[in-house]
Amino acid sequence: MAMEGANEECVGPSSEAAGKASTCDGCPNQKACAEGAGRQEDPELELIRARLQHVQRKVLILSGKGGVGKSTLAAQLAFALAARGLRVGLLDVDICGPSIPLMLGLKGQTVHQSGSGWSPVYVTGEGLCDDEEDEVELGVMSIGFMLPNDDDAVIWRGPRKNGLIKQFLTDVEWGALDYLIVDTPPGTSDEHISLVQYLAKALGPHDGALVVSTPQEVSLIDVRKELSFCAKTKLRVLGVVENMAEYATPLHTLGFRDAAGADVTSATIEMLRAQCPQVLELIATADIFPRASGGAEEMARKFGVPFLGRVPLDPSITIACEQGSSYAASARRLGRNNLLQPLVDGLLASAPKAED
Ligand SMILES: Nc1ncnc2c1ncn2[C@@H]1O[C@H](COP(=O)(O)OP(=O)(O)OP(=O)(O)O)[C@@H](O)[C@H]1O
Description:
- The protein is of the alpha/beta class.
- 33% of the residues lie in helices and 19% in strands.
- It is built from twelve helices and eleven strands.
- It has helices spanning 30-34, 44-51, 70-83, 100-103, 158-171, 190-198, 217-232, 265-275, 295-303, 315-323, 327-334, 341-350, and strands at residues 55-62, 87-92, 112-114, 117-119, 121-122, 137-142, 177-183, 208-213, 237-250, 283-286, 307-313.
- The strands form two sheets. Strands 1, 2, 5, 6, 7, 8, 9, 10 and 11 form a nine-stranded mixed sheet that branches. It has a two-stranded antiparallel sheet with strand order 3-4.
- α2 (44-51) packs across α5 (158-171), α5 (158-171) packs parallel to α6 (190-198) and α7 runs parallel beside α9.
- It is globular and about 80 Å long.
- Adenosine-5'-triphosphate (ATP) binds at residues 63, 66-72, 94, 97, 99, 186, 243-244, 311, 313-314, 317-318, 321.
- Residues 1-23 are annotated as: Disordered.
- GO terms for molecular function: 4 iron, 4 sulfur cluster binding; ATP binding; ATP-dependent FeS chaperone activity; metal ion binding.
- Its cofactor is [4Fe-4S] cluster.
- This is Cytosolic Fe-S cluster assembly factor NUBP1 homolog.
């Protein structure tokens, strides 16, 4: 119910978004609502705490900016952690743009409901674990599993989206997990405020946010806002990662054109193969996005939060995501350097298991 004298689209003083929603801007009651005056604790927060009590670590993947690789890193981190024999859950709360089912190779799967809640959809397959004999324990939940058609648009207003996010937290039967990775939509919207408030009682001291940026200023501007959001909502920042830090690919995979624009790829590759074959195996790199003002590392330093490292823009990561497969497993099979390893190591170090 709206407060007296409140703005027209008042979310109500008992709402989790009270005083913080965009519609609260300029309202005379904004301060009181933001401080929680008149708000009673949502009894479902206790339910969420109970549901997630056997989840050792909760990691929210955040970025103020869209398209910087949140879902990519969420998906590939989930694969990589599960490959180590850890029990992993991946929750996609990007209600309007759920890409996690595709990136996990689970497109077309549906969620099963039992008396005690929704069962996640599980990733299965051979060769996903570092120890080839083992099987991965990786459960996934996304609205994408509930849409009858992939092309259907979810055009929901905030309260309905918040309702589903809450239901994902109260109703999904994750069981005991080492890590729950939560992929979020871009920005610092009502959904983010709700998510953090719903998790308020469930977050432990090692839980928090992994904040993703690309190097250029247009991304850093929005990511600084995300870091301010974390500070305001008292969400611990586990670390910042700079994604698409540079373009990196073996030289032999590049295409070549002459000055007139004609494709001379095969002729160039043949010439190199004949004259200097080892050159073809070199990794060609390029700074596609200019690193403005020191990039994400400098931004992390200024905010006093850990910098977990850089992940290059690498076609093999894109391909793994398009195919719904594990990049780390394919790098291992091909004997290639795993470009995500520093990030995985940094995350494990920032959020050690309880008994460590
Ligand atoms: N390091 C990388 N190397 C290669 N491709 C990448 C990398 N990171 C992301 N991509 C590609 O960039 C595209 C956008 O990534 P992704 O969907 O993960 O971004 P997002 O931040 O989750 O987007 P949104 O904000 O829309 O949810 C995808 O096609 C993904 O495969």
